[in-house]
């Protein structure tokens, strides 16, 4: 018996009531739904772009901050406010002809002792020259004191480096000289002879534009009054003629310097006569030298210039020191410069050295031997 297949009729509507799109979201589908159906690759690319944007923003902020810091650093350097510890052997002193005349510096020992006890209160000022070297701009005596302390103690850890303000390279030479002059002008004890020496040094410098010392006075001492600049120009005559001969030029008073300058102009050969009298007289005191200068400055030329010069050139006996006269001189020792002062009833030796550390018997023997030789 065979079975019969039954057939069913299926009715298909002409227009579907609902459509089912493939691979596309509805136009009005929410963004959150779209994001939820984004593929891993698209998500990674989006995150990378956002990260790059954030990194670029941070880098731009860092660059702007670095530029601001660099600008401020240059400003501070130009003002000499950036300091560091600079090795002494890395500092040169060739750019400026120094304001200190050759000869004894009686105040250096005091500065050395002050630095030894309380340290350096005011850093020197240097300018970088490349390859780890620097040029001194301000602080000649402070640098000299540090070098003396290093030579005396051998303590490179303490005295081998000096605090220094590092100035931006490129200041004009005239500006550097002006700054050096102004630094010294605030000293109450700076003499007309020292100011005249400053003008001479400026004119001697081959790198400066002005080589006339009297014109250099107008450049260096702009802040000084006309009368003071006139006095400095008069002292230039004295320092030019006698600078290498005089041991105590800073002790010359204004009145004596002006009178001496006038006599040097009036009497030819007067400078040679003064040099002849002071030659080889290394033991003279301040008083001795000033007495010689006063005598020449007050010399009459009534008998004619030639007679005055001959009289001036005659050798004069060494004046005997008065009871209260004082003789001062310096002796160079390995520990530094020993300042010696001899007066009536007193002999003083000042040297940057601890004499109390010397064995008493050795000290007594040395002093006794010195006194024996003085008999």
Describe this structure in words.
This protein is α/β, with parallel strands linked by helices and 375 residues long. Among the domains are: 45-78; 194-313, no CATH class; 327-374, no CATH class. Helices cover 49% and strands 12% of the residues. The protein is built from 14 helices and eight strands. The chain has a five-stranded mixed beta sheet. Strands 6-7-8 form a three-stranded antiparallel beta sheet. The N and C termini lie far apart (169 Å). Mean pLDDT is 75; it is low at 99-103 and 299-324.
Specify Rg, calculated over alpha carbons: 42 Å
Task: Please give the alpha-carbon distance between the first and last residues.
Answer: 169 Å
How many distinct beta strands?
8
Task: Give the count of helical stretches.
Answer: 14
- Estimate the global geometry from the Cα principal axes: elongated
Largest sheet: 5 strands, mixed
Average predicted confidence as pLDDT: 75
Protein name: ParB N-terminal domain-containing protein
Region (Disordered): 1-40
Domain ParB-like N-terminal: 86-150
Biased composition (Basic and acidic residues): 25-38
Quick structural overview:
By secondary structure, this protein is of the alpha/beta class. The protein has helices spanning 31-36, 40-78, 108-118, 140-153, 156-159, 173-185, 192-204, 213-220, 226-242, 254-266, 270-278, 286-297, 305-313, 360-374, and strands spanning 83-87, 91-92, 124-130, 133-138, 161-166, 327-333, 336-343, 346-350.
Task: Please give the structural blueprint.
Layout: H1 31-36, H2 40-78, E1 83-87, E2 91-92, H3 108-118, E3 124-130, E4 133-138, H4 140-153, H5 156-159, E5 161-166, H6 173-185, H7 192-204, H8 213-220, H9 226-242, H10 254-266, H11 270-278, H12 286-297, H13 305-313, E6 327-333, E7 336-343, E8 346-350, H14 360-374
Domain ParB-like N-terminal: 86-150
Pfam family, one: ParB_N
Biased composition (Basic and acidic residues): 25-38
């Amino acid at each position: 018996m065979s079975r019969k297949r039954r057939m069913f009729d299926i009715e298909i509507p002409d227009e579907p009531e609902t459509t089912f799109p493939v691979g596309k979201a509805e136009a009005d589908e929410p963004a959150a739904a779209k994001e939820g159906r984004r593929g891993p690759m698209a998500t990674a690319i989006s995150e990378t772009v956002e990260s790059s944007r954030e990194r670029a923003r941070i880098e731009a902020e860092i660059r702007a901050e670095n530029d601001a810091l660099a600008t401020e650093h240059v400003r501070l350097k130009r003002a000499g406010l950036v300091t560091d510890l600079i090795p002494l052997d890395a500092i040169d002193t060739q750019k400026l002809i120094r304001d200190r005349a050759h000869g004894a510096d009686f105040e250096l020992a005091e500065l050395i002792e002050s630095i030894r006890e309380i340290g350096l209160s005011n850093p020197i000022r240097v300018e970088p020259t490349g390859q780890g070297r620097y040029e001194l701009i301000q602080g000649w005596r402070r640098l000299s004191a540090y070098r003396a302390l290093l030579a005396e103690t051998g303590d490179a850890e303490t005295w081998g480096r000096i605090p220094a303000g590092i100035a931006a390279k490129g200041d004009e030479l005239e500006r550097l000289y002006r700054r050096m002059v102004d630094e010294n002008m605030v000293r109450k004890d700076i003499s007309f002879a020292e100011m005249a020496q400053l003008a001479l040094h400026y004119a001697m410098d081959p790198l400066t534009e002005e080589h006339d010392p009297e014109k250099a006075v107008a450049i260096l001492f702009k802040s000084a009054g006309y009368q003071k600049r006139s006095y400095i120009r008069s002292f230039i005559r004295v320092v030019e003629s006698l600078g290498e001969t005089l041991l105590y030029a800073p002790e010359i008073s204004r009145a004596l310097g002006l009178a001496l300058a006038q006599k040097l102009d009036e009497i030819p050969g007067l400078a040679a006569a003064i040099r002849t009298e002071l030659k080889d007289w290394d033991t003279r005191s301040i008083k001795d030298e000033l007495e010689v200068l006063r005598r020449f400055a007050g010399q009459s030329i009534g008998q004619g210039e030639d007679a005055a010069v001959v009289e001036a050139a005659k050798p004069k006996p060494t004046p005997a020191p008065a009871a209260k006269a004082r003789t001062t001189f310096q002796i160079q020792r390995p520990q530094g410069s020993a300042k010696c002062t001899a007066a009536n009833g007193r002999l003083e030796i000042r040297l940057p050295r601890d004499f109390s550390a010397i064995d008493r018997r050795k000290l007594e023997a040395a002093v006794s031997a010195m006194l024996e030789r003085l008999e």
